[in-house]
Amino acid sequence: MEFIMKSAPARKAVEATLENIKKRIPAYGELADRFGPLFLLKASLCEALVKEPLVLPEVVASKISAEVPLLAGEDMSVWTKEFVEIADKMFPILAESLKLDKKTQDILHEYLADPDNVLGLAQARIDGNWKHFENTSKQLGISPDHALLYISENVCTPVFSAIAELLGKSLSLHSWEQGNCPVCGSSPSISQLSPVEVTDLDNLVSGGGKKFLHCSLCGHDWRFKRNACAACGNDENESREIFYVDDVKHERIDVCHKCGTYCLSIDMRECDVIPQLDVAQIGLIHLDIYAHNNKLRPITPTIWNSLD
Fold it and tell me: How far apart are CA 32 and CA 20, in angstroms?
């Protein structure tokens, strides 16, 4: 099993993807402008962390072979400093992107000023303790309650992405065949079929088309069976389909009728500009709407596919 070795989400890739979305589908321009600064800041923070002496968890072969993600069970307190600094830098842009009212902004700003609260959110996210976000939102009196989860994930992402980037070489030595991320354990928000590549060996050209899942939290990409559902593992051709809209076949959804889920997918072999996959999802909302209208559930709920 191989992993795709990718860099942290570089600003240039984010900028190019945002511009391409606005050029191709002007209707998404407002969203691209609204959330663009957030994506750019996350990219910058991640790039900075990769260059710093960041504490890294050990890649334990027995843990990976037991199908336990790298960060599962880890104490997030070793990154408290990073989480707190990121929350401080990111919150003003998050508040603007989410269009939080003044009262909610004040409540959250005060809450995030406490390092223990920020650490608690990070620990809850890596542990999958969704009740923590629901209960905390109720205690703070903020609505919608998913706003706190979205804020927490954005604060975590630069740290987890930097870890994934820095440990990429070590991770590539181990096999991982699961539909959840080997780094942080999160489910994928999108997949890709790899682009055509020129290798160093006599300039040979590979055909590409290998399937990689893209983590919804840390952005790690890992190889996965092309004909299988990431949610339930179903590989029966009769119960799996590919849907696309308006003959744009390289942007599509992989559907599993066995579990009723779908996952966005981009065939990179057909892309003139290789998109940054987190940003690219802004330009695929019409596919989420198509799936929603056909009673399908996303493998991973995101701000873009939460239509209700």
Answer: 10
